[in-house]
């Protein structure tokens, strides 16, 4: 599993089965082809299950596996950490940039 699309799909599908078109609408900037490829890879990795319902037209749903739910929980903790510490990181960056101005790098 790699890439920003995989993470976004895991987040979008965390609350239960979701259809392809719902994913497509909910993930800004993803192409239909990239969504298809990423879902296929997530399925191959054992993180997503694909269920085809025998209707006309066929209804296809994607759902996270238990392992993917565990990964989602980990990603959520990372996101929570980033939110809690974003001001600290911004201040650290500003302090670093003030100390390492481009003109001081030329010396």
Verbal overview:
The structure is a single chain. With 107 residues, this protein is α+β, with helices and mostly antiparallel strands. The chain has a single domain (2-98), classed as Arc Repressor Mutant, subunit A. It has five helices and three strands, in the order αβααββαα. The chain has helices at 4-12, 20-26, 32-44, 66-99, 102-105; strands at residues 18-19, 48-53, 59-64. The chain has a three-stranded antiparallel beta sheet. The longest helix has 34 residues, at 66-99. The radius of gyration is 20 Å and the shape is elongated. The model has no long low-confidence stretch (mean pLDDT 90). Keywords: DNA-binding, Transcription, Transcription regulation. GO terms for molecular function: DNA binding.
Which properties best describe this structure?
107 residues, alpha+beta, elongated, three-stranded antiparallel sheet, 63% helix, Arc Repressor Mutant, subunit A
Concise structural overview:
By secondary structure, this protein is α+β, with helices and mostly antiparallel strands. The protein has helices at residues 4-12, 20-26, 32-44, 66-99, 102-105; strands at residues 18-19, 48-53, 59-64. The longest helix has 34 residues, at 66-99.
């Amino acid at each position: 599993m790699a890439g920003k699309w995989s993470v976004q799909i895991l987040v979008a599908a965390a609350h239960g089965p979701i259809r392809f078109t719902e994913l497509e609408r909910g993930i800004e900037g993803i192409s239909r082809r990239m969504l298809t490829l990423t879902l296929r890879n997530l399925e191959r990795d054992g993180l997503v299950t694909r269920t085809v319902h025998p209707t006309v037209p066929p209804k296809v749903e994607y759902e996270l596996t238990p392992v993917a739910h565990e990964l989602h929980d980990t990603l959520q903790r990372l996101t929570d950490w980033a939110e809690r510490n974003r001001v600290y990181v911004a201040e650290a960056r500003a302090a670093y940039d003030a100390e390492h101005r481009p003109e001081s790098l030329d010396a």
